[in-house]
């Protein structure tokens, strides 16, 4: 082969390598571990569907040269050991640029060592756990407010607004339950009160009969609950059956949409929310979401909307950074978008100087 032939082959090879590199850099890989199966699957499925709703739209309409989003989703069934397996695969094998929308406190806590070792950004987890609010050993960005703020609102509702005196707690026995339990008892203590009774049940079960027996032994006016929609709805329905008349409240993780759909009779139930009701909220992004959902089988609920908002914020931030994506740039861009993007701020009805996200309420 002549020297010119060799040079031509080298040119073709170099061009192919360059094109492959540019192509690889034009995709931002995002990994999501969530419950697609098990007794809490509706939450994970709806978060995933909401995120995909926006990511698909973004990929179809992005500007030429802009990075595409590749969402890789693995099922953990809301079981921490499965989340660890998924996170290892996503971070160390699949080399994702960020973990996104991981569902749950115990699941997030279980992968803390992976986050600390890899420094991969941990974006928009579906939890308000305190250990994620101001971490110093790994990179996290929260869109939802803290469980402490939700717990404060529940106790404010029970004690300050409803004038209740005797409050009991129904707690999922894991890191999620412990986190919110601490916030609830702290909010009660600030008002000179203690829980009348604290009952517990195991995660991913609806084994609430023992907790119900304990609750029946005390005259309770309000029950603050921590768990998912399956055990909480069963507890409320059984409590109504045995004549335990009280008010109920729980934090956003339970999923008001799924919880309310399973309730019987007319119990008084409050669920704190971290996003506004997408069916009635005002703003350009609310309108866009409702229009997007109209052409699908999805419902206008808070979990689908939260997944959609998470994806929207991520795509706006990615467009502020050069490729390949840099963790520091991405985290800074997310914070800047949250503080200055008028489209996202009008969804949460944030005032110009307001940085803390609000808590909303849903009632049954």
From TrEMBL:
Give the residue range of the signal peptide. 1-24
Write down the SUPFAM superfamilies for this protein, in alphabetical order: Periplasmic binding protein-like I (SSF53822)
State the CDD domains in the record. PBP1_ABC_ligand_binding-like
Q: Which InterPro entries match?
A: Leu-bd, Peripla_BP_I
Pfam families according to UniProt: Peripla_BP_6 (PF13458)
**Keywords of this entry:** Signal
- List each copy of the Leucine-binding protein domain by range: 28-351
- Membrane-spanning intervals of the chain: none
- Database matches in PANTHER family: BLR6548 PROTEIN
Q: Which family does it belong to?
A: Belongs to the leucine-binding protein family.
> What is the official name of this protein in its record?
Leucine-binding protein domain-containing protein
Species whose genome carries this gene:
Pseudoalteromonas piscicida
């Amino acid at each position: 082969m002549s020297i010119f032939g060799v040079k031509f082959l080298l040119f073709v090879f170099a061009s192919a390598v360059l094109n492959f590199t540019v192509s690889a850099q034009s995709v931002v890989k995002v990994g999501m571990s969530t419950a697609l199966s098990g007794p809490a699957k509706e939450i994970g499925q709806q978060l995933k569907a909401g995120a995909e709703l926006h990511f698909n739209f973004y990929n179809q309409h992005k500007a030429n040269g802009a990075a595409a989003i590749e969402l890789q989703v693995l099922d953990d069934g809301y079981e921490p050991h499965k989340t660890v397996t998924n996170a290892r695969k996503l971070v160390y094998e699949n080399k994702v640029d960020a973990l996104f929308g991981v569902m749950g406190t115990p699941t997030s806590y279980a992968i803390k060592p992976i986050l600390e070792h890899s420094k991969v950004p941990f974006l928009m987890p579906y939890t308000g756990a305190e250990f994620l609010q101001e971490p110093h050993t790994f990179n996290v960005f929260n869109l939802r407010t803290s469980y402490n703020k939700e717990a404060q609102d529940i106790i404010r509702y029970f004690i300050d607004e409803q004038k209740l005196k005797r409050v009991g707690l129904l707690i999922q026995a894991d890191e999620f339950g412990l986190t919110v339990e601490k916030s609830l008892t702290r909010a009660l203590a600030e008002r000179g009160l203690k829980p009348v009774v604290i009952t517990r049940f195991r995660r991913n079960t609806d084994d609430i009969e023992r907790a119900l027996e304990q609750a029946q032994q005390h005259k309770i006016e309000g029950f603050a609950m921590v768990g998912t929609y399956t055990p909480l709805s069963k507890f409320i329905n059984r409590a109504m059956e045995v004549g335990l008349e009280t008010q109920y409240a729980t934090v956003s993780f339970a999923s008001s949409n799924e919880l309310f759909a399973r309730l019987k009779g007319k119990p008084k139930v409050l669920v704190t929310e971290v996003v506004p009701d997408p069916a009635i909220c005002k703003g350009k992004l609310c309108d866009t979401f409702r229009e997007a959902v109209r052409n699908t089988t999805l419902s206008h609920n808070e979990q689908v909307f939260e997944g959609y908002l998470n994806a929207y914020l991520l795509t706006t931030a990615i467009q502020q950074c050069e490729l390949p994506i840099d963790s520091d740039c991405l985290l800074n861009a997310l914070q800047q978008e949250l503080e200055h993007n008028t489209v996202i701020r009008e969804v949460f009805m944030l005032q110009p100087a307001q940085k803390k996200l609000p808590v909303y309420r849903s009632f049954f």
